[in-house]
Amino acid sequence: xxxxxxxxxxxxxxxxxAASYVKLEKAGKSLKARCPFHKxxxxxxxISPERGxxxxxxxxxxxxxxxxxxxxxxxxxxxxxxxxAERAGIPLSExxxxxxxxxxxEKDRLYALMEEATNxxxxxxxxxxxxxxxxxxxxxTEESIKxxxxxxxxxQWRYLSEKLGTYGDADLVAGGLSIRSDKKEVGIYDRFRxxxxxxxxxxxxxxxxxxxxxxxxxxxxxxxxxxxxxVNSPETALFRKSFxxxxxxxxxGSIRTSDFSILVEGQMDLLMSHQSGFPNTVALSxxxxxxxxxxxxxxxxxxxxxxxxxxxxxxxxxxxxxxxxLAQGFDVKAAEFPKGMDPADVAKxxxxxxxxxxxxxxxxxxxxxxxxxxxxxxxxxxxKSAEVHVLPLIASLPxxxxxxxxxxxxxxxxxVPREAVGEDVRKIxxxxxxxxxxxxxxxxxxxxxxxxLERLVGMVLALAxxxxxxxxxxxxxxxxxxxxxxxxxxRERFLFELESEDSREDMGEELLRLIEREMIEEEIRSARRxxxxxxxxxxxxxxxxxxxxxxxxxxxRDKLNP
Length: 562
What we know:
This protein has 562 residues and is of the alpha+beta class. A five-stranded antiparallel beta sheet has the order 1-2-3-4-5. α13 (312-327) links the parallel β14 (303-306) and β15. α1 (4-11) packs across α4, α19 crosses α20 (418-440) and α21 crosses α24 (491-500).
């Protein structure tokens, strides 16, 4: 019986999976693309349809469709299995892994815990019509509440800890659902109390964290002021907020088809945006936008609309997010919402009002310039703000035409010569290029240089499993053992190199000839070095011997020439 991995590999060719993330082009029997794991100008990422594997000659990354999915989706093997099974049209029920009778691994237990907590929160919400009415008053439909699996946690101190006590205190704390008390007699207590619960999923759709919106005070609380409006899960073995975009599991397909993503910050902003007809929306999870977030989005589309709040904090977030996104080559726009309103407020007014705001998004540099002009007291203040906030954004643009356009725009608004703005942008660009080049350097450990002989021997070793006589003849030429140990990790690389060569039946014979020739070349180089040393020390007898040796070696080498 085929294993789950084999079933999926049969239905999903690696070319189909890879094409979701990179643009492929033919390269002999293989396909190639720019590597999604490191920045590069020329393609060094190769895919073998025949073997179902990939290898990057630049950074050394290699693997199959599961490795590729794990790395690019930020999930573990089980998450990759789930994603690929869904894509291959294989029901998850068919992928039951053998074994599992013993104690589950920590992550498996935590996934089960988070799922059970979500189910419990959902049941609680059904029993609280007042909470459901609040959510509907915020604009959510019953369908959205159900689809996004919203829930509620009661205001008791230990409700969840007791309900899910079979998991044990350690797992409840590890999952971020409970907190250890300083008082030994208390043990643990619930992190979320009296809150509307928004489950956060990873890109495979598994619940990994929660965001809880305050609704009522904790039972027995004597504090007069309300606690924090939102409480989020801490970082856990499942949840790393700088890696997770809330809603990405639902938005991936829509981002691909619409060729742009919308980024919001709030839970309600996310749900209302989806409800308003933009299923290509994702949200940050209690942190600022990171390079990893952008990397995840870049595999789907390089066009981004920032739909952040219109207050001062929102503008700061827009500036920071835009800088990061432009530096990664994104086409970035920003949506302008009325003062005092966030995306959810506009969406609540009506789908068309929200859609109009998104459709009328401006290029982010133009958006920032307008906002700075509104805030500035005079032209001098505007120039100062633009120099700090706008010029670095222009310098980040990869297109020279776009840079020229915005230099012209800024010069006109600031009432200064275009040349002056251009000169400042060039200074910033040169500084950024220097920093970027250092970041883009691939560590030498990933791509160590191999000698010609090592490369040739490695290619023969890669062919040897299918040709035993080839291996025997290789051992007659060289001591294979030292090479095998060193070159084992490069086998995938050598196979790709062989595929990129012209397909020839006598490839093994040709490689053996080249190995023998290279060994003679190494002897010639060694003899020449020794000859130079002998002549310098006036050792005529040794010099004569070496000259004769060189002539013999040259004749042997010439016989091996094609």
